[in-house]
Specification:
Residues 105-132 form a coiled coil. Keywords: Coiled coil. Residues 253-278 are annotated as: Disordered. By secondary structure, the protein is mostly helical. It has a domain at 47-259. It contains 14 helices and four strands. The strands form two sheets. It has a two-stranded parallel ribbon. Helix 5 (86-124) runs antiparallel to helix 10 and helix 9 (198-206) crosses helix 10 (210-246). The radius of gyration is 25 Å and the shape is elongated.
């Protein structure tokens, strides 16, 4: 978990979550809404994992094992750490690394052309030209991996394609200059959370300008988040759906309440659907009030320094981010 929300590059992160559209934008589409919903659920820890489904409907899901590796409980962390997906993850990360490196080189070539044009114009006008020539070092994949393994817990597992040296569980602090904190995790990257420090690491690694490094860092996190959705989550969903079909779990059965003693299917006598069920829990309202009261207490404890909110709870002041980061 990220120890401090101020370490997040929120302009990039919000752009990723909202699929490049500003939160106040009138643009919408089915694809846009689907991607946004997926990303928000990731941040909230609300993806429909086998653990969640088993707790929700134990009558349909007898266990909570991962349908990919068949040996571990599938929770919101295991999704991104399943040993059966490490080879695919390594390929996905390296593809993103190659694309980002190629992008950086193209940006440098454009910057150099612009620099040469400005220099030539200054010389023709007899003016002194002090602007430094933009540079770029085309680093090897090994150098790239070394940097990522230093600052992203779990990157070593992906690089070496094993969980023997489980960086995901290590608590050590990496000194990043005047600040010291636990490094980002690969799960943070899959969630689309961009770290502020990454652009500085890209600038040092590729020996380039801050502007180019900033764009490269943004595209890297965007690429990893996108791979996590299309390369890990989507195939996992397909495999889970195929498994559900094999045991007779359908969309209808998920929507139908489990049978209760003395009633017919759906929890009430006379209909197979869930509509008009008078046997539902009469304490739903009081339960929601308790949840709201607990949430209010969390916020109050945070303001009083007695507790720590999670990432999404701390971003409740959306207006601040809209005005500061998005210029609305």
């Amino acid at each position: 978990m990220i120890p401090e929300w101020g370490l997040v590059e929120w302009q990039t992160t919000i752009a990723i979550v909202h699929n490049g559209s500003k939160p106040r934008s009138l643009f919408t589409s089915n694809s846009d809404c689907t991607k946004r919903a997926h990303r928000v659920k990731k941040l909230h820890g609300m993806l429909p994992t086998q653990k969640y489904m088993h707790n929700w409907r134990p009558d349909l899901y007898e266990d909570d094992y991962c349908r990919v590796c068949e040996s571990n409980v599938e929770d919101t962390n295991h999704i991104w750490r399943c040993p059966e997906t490490l080879t695919s993850q390594c390929e996905g990360w390296e593809e993103t690394m190659e694309l980002v490196t190629s992008l950086g080189k193209k940006l440098w070539e454009r910057a150099k052309e612009s620099w040469e044009s400005e220099k030539k114009k200054a010389e023709e006008e007899g003016k002194e030209f002090k602007k430094k020539e933009p540079t770029f070092s085309n680093e090897t994949m090994d150098s790239f991996w070394t940097m990522l393994m230093d600052y992203f817990r779990g990157a070593r597992n992906i690089k070496e394609q094993n969980l023997l040296d489980d960086d995901m569980e290590r608590e050590e602090v990496v000194d990043l200059g005047s600040l010291g904190w636990r490094p980002w995790t690969v799960i943070d990257a899959y969630h689309g959370l961009a770290p502020l420090f990454l652009k500085d690491k890209f600038q040092t690694l590729f020996y380039t300008t801050q502007e180019i490094a900033s764009i490269m860092a943004d595209r890297f996190i965007k690429g990893i988040e996108d791979y996590g959705r299309t390369g890990i989550w989507n195939p996992r969903c397909k495999k889970t759906v195929d498994w559900e079909k094999s045991i007779g779990v359908t969309g209808v059965s998920k929507r139908t309440r489990p049978e209760e003693p003395g009633t017919r299917a759906g929890g009430h006598g006379g209909s197979n659907s869930n509509f008009g069920n008078f046997n539902r829990d009469r304490f739903d309202v009081t339960r929601m009030k308790r949840l709201h009261k607990a949430a209010d207490k969390d916020v109050l404890d945070e303001y009083q320094g007695k507790g720590v909110l999670n990432v999404m709870e701390r971003t409740g002041g959306v207006k601040y981010f809209l005005e500061k980061d998005l210029g609305n």
